[in-house]
Design a protein that fits this description.
By secondary structure, the chain is α/β, with parallel strands linked by helices. It contains 12 helices and 15 strands. The strands form 3 sheets. Strands 1, 2, 3, 4, 5, 13, 14 and 15 form an 8-stranded mixed beta sheet that branches. A 4-stranded parallel beta sheet has the order 9-10-11-12. Strand 1 and strand 2 (about 20) form a beta hairpin. Bound molecules: zinc ion. The site of zinc ion has 5 residues, from loops.
Amino acid sequence: MTTVIYPEWLVDGTGSAPRSGYALAFAGSQIEAVAPASELSPAEDDTVVRAPGATLLPGLINMHVHLSLASDNAPFIPYMDAHSDVALAMRAAHNAAAALRAGVTTLRDCGSRGRSVLDLRSARADGLLQVPRILAAGPALTISGGHMRPFGGEVDGVDGVRQMVRRLVSDGADFIKVAGSGGGTPGSLTDYPSFSVDELRAVVETAHGLGRRVTVHCTATAAIDRAISAGVDSIEHGYFGAPGNFQAYDPRLTEQLAQMGVSVTPTLQVFRDMADVLPPGAERDFWHTRRETLLTNAGRLHTAGVRLTAGSDAGWRFTRFDNYARELQEMASAGLSALQVIHAATGAAAEATGHVSDFGTLQPGLSADLLLVDGNLATDISHLAAVRRVYVEGHLLAGADVAPE
Ligand SMILES: [Zn+2]
């Protein structure tokens, strides 16, 4: 059966300007047509959705989440110690369902323990759960004592990383995540790089040889440098830190990222959430100052032509799964137009995952991952908080307006 949607505005996710007077038709899980409304005449038994005053766009992609974490700023190591893989998988299912309410139809899990999220991904593919599409890395590779080690991805040396990548791919990892620097895990060093260029090259060569992309957590300028040298596909966070200096911005590296087409997911929301949640005091000031620095640097990357993709680091610290609009508003604060933000969260993100022919834009033959929001989104990104309907692969799953026609 075919469904035809008549929105006021249609934003197709390719970065093109919004169109008025257009309609979209889909049947089963696939988009069939995007055309001027006058050219699409529904048959009698087709479902017709009229959405005056609303924008239709592709379902959003959140490029950086940790589905098994609780968004409650719980100390990371005790939290992981206290939860079995089954408990983590149930948390992940809960979080994935919450993400739908924010219009997210694809989640890229950037680190989880064992098979907890890989198995959730498979359960979804088997039709057991109605949640967004999940792309999962499983455990992130990390050096001994490194960031995210409670996920179980500690490994050292060229042979060690090759073995780990092969095992993860065999376990079903959709992509490979690497902790290229320390991070929020106690004992890891946020401002220092971790793996050597040789180790990173071995990761990239092994993963690419098995058809998987590699993305690298970088919160240190030196880590970005090494990741670029190793030929990675994308960078998470992209914070320019050096020992004792969180403002070690390097325009030379920015230029290289732009030239080589390495995309960056700047994960800005965590800092906004921390600054909003904490009581006044030194700790809040710290997060607030960092937030300002990150916004400035994300703007510099964007201006220099680095491809930005949207991702919120949901699960980590206080960042939740059901308010993704906050990340996208931060990207707008960094200097992206509403249309550029939408592109970063749809077509550009799909391209960075290697799935540009499968989902992420409104084109015939692609998955019917659709989002209807109130208002003209191309003029004001904050309308993303007003989700009306969400379809994943043609299934109507969530929204304020989910009554059947
Ligand atoms: Zn993360």
